[in-house]
């Protein structure tokens, strides 16, 4: 029902012509806006005088890839910690338990290093956001 009401509102068609460069410019604006069609974009520009332009910061792509890799590594380390902990609790010999505890300590150190990497990346991101 909501869609039919919209059609009734926009029942008058206006046609006009653009040159190739103007059309390319309009298409570029449409790609960067939150509008769904050229008509919507033109109506917003004509009557509201404003459009929302969305920009994509490609430098953040690299940071997101790094964070994704760190997340994968942290997940793997977490699985390793769980496996070693399970073996620690199953172990009866004190010497073997000590070895498992040392392994857990090593894995916790790796986790700390990854957390430090994440904090460094967050520091870079906050520096970028504060500049803008």
Structural class: mainly alpha
Categorize the overall geometry.
Answer: rod-shaped
User: Which range best describes the helical content: under 10%, 10-25%, 25-40%, 40-55%, 55-70% or over 70%?
Assistant: over 70%
What portion of residues belong to β-strands? Answer: under 5%
Instruction: Give the distance, in angstroms, between the N- and C-terminal Cα atoms.
Output: 43 Å
Please tell me the overall pLDDT: 82
Number of strands: 0
Largest sheet: none
- Which spans of ≥5 residues are poorly predicted at pLDDT below 50? none
Whole-number radius of gyration?
28 Å
Task: Please indicate the count of domains.
Answer: 2
Number of DSSP helices? 5
Listing every helix as H and every strand as E from the N terminus to the C terminus, the arrangement reads: HHHHH
Structure description:
- By secondary structure, this protein is mainly alpha-helical.
- The chain folds into two domains: 16-55, no CATH class; 59-131.
- 77% of the residues lie in helices and 0% in strands.
- It has helices at residues 2-9, 20-32, 38-48, 59-90, 94-131.
- α4 packs antiparallel against α5.
- The protein is rod-shaped.
- It starts with a helix and ends with a helix.
- 1% of the residues are buried.
- The model has no long low-confidence stretch (mean pLDDT 82).
């Amino acid at each position: 029902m909501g869609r039919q009401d919209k059609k009734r509102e926009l029942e008058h068609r206006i046609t006009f012509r653009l040159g190739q460069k103007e059309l390319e410019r309009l298409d570029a604006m449409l790609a960067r806006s939150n509008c769904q069609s050229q008509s919507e974009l033109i109506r917003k520009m004509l009557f509201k005088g404003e459009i929302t332009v969305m920009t994509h910061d490609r430098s953040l792509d690299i940071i997101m890839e790094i964070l994704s890799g760190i997340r994968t590594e942290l997940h793997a380390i977490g699985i390793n910690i769980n496996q070693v902990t399970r073996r620690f609790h199953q172990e009866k010999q004190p010497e073997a338990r000590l070895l498992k505890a040392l392994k857990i300590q090593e894995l916790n150190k790796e986790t700390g290093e990854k957390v430090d990497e994440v904090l460094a990346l967050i520091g870079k991101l906050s520096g970028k956001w504060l500049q803008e």
